[in-house]
Design brief:
Length: 323
């Protein structure tokens, strides 16, 4: 069983099939900023999101624009260069994914398109969210459980909104989703993989929740580093240092007004507030794989004879480039 790990395709969906052909992968795990846009997205995205699409494209120096530019002008540029990407072709069925693709959404997506995906079957595309836990088999046995939650992680009242939460091209996760997923994950002792868009290295409160899910691997993207980063808490901290880092952010929960919080959201809050056990599993055996943008590289996670193997692949990086 070979899984292609990829992230931040930003609408360049065709690269997924190109890489599965190249790597002979059996499946794909995608960590968000997929490029969930269609022809209706022009009217949904804010000027800032349209501007970002242009500034992160090869055409960024062709136009004298800034975030104050007229929205119609920005839309014209995005349309001219097809910067929303290829996903409309997969929505329509004109193109298809070669192998099963399991994906979370990122923080730069169209919420309307995500809602469409949840009700419309797209060949070989499976959305990782609070409603789905996938059992991945190899050689007629369970290899691992696969689950995930996408979007940004914003410690504010946004965490208490109902999913799918987002607007104007920005998307974020909610505590309700974490509570629902926690209740659905029955056997936490099975080998498992959790996928998010944001990195656990940036969000101690999110990691406080996920310790209770006990994943073997936590796959993420978002950071844009040119190489895959594979690490866990044990490799960078002593146990007490890790716990002190987790505890340092607890006061951020004080901003949450829980009057309208769902029971599921309150479950997630209680998980965050739980005292962290001095447990070897999360400290030594919960490995984080933070992926680069797809244009820079990808990884292959192989499951064979009840063992996991990780290979990372990146393009050439100019070490003299300090920008």
């Amino acid at each position: 069983m070979r899984a292609l790990l990829i992230s931040d395709t930003h609408g360049n969906i065709d690269i997924i099939n190109q890489l599965t052909d190249k790597t002979k992968a059996d499946m794909v795990i995608h960590a968000g900023d997929f490029g969930f846009y269609d022809e209706t997205s022009y009217q949904h995205l804010s000027s800032r999101e349209l501007f970002l699409l242009i500034t992160h494209s090869p055409y960024r120096n062709d136009y004298a624009i800034d975030q104050q530019a007229n929205k119609n002008e920005l839309v014209d540029i995005v349309k001219r260069h097809k910067l929303l990407g290829d996903f409309s072709d997969y929505l329509s069925g004109e193109k298809q994914f070669n192998v099963p693709v399991y994906a979370v959404y990122g923080n730069h997506e169209d919420v309307g398109v995500i809602r469409k995906i949840k009700t419309q079957s797209i060949y070989n595309l499976h959305l990782l969210d609070e409603e789905n836990i996938f059992l991945i088999h190899g050689n007629n046995e369970l290899a691992f459980q696969l689950f995930g939650l996408g979007g940004n992680f914003l410690v504010s009242q946004k965490l208490l909104r109902q999913p799918v939460a987002g607007t104007a091209g920005k998307v974020w996760g909610t505590l309700h989703q974490f509570g629902v997923l926690y209740q659905k994950l029955k056997n936490k002792n099975e080998s498992s993989i959790f996928v998010s868009h944001v990195s656990p290295g940036k969000e101690p409160l999110l990691t406080r929740i996920m310790i209770h899910f006990m994943p073997n691997f936590w796959i993420s993207g978002h950071m844009g580093a040119p190489y895959t980063c594979v690490w866990n808490q044990f490799t960078i901290h002593e146990m007490e240092e890790s716990i002190a880092w987790f505890d340092s952010q607890l006061d951020r929960l004080d901003v949450l007004q829980l009057d309208n919080a769902t029971p599921e959201a309150k479950i997630a809050i209680e998980l965050m507030k739980c005292e962290i056990k001095r447990d070897e599993f999360w400290f030594k055996k919960m490995w984080n794989i933070n992926l680069p943008d797809a244009k820079y590289g990808y990884s292959i996670l192989t499951y064979e004879n009840k063992r996991f193997y990780v290979d990372s692949h990146s393009g050439p990086i100019d070490i003299k480039d300090k920008t």
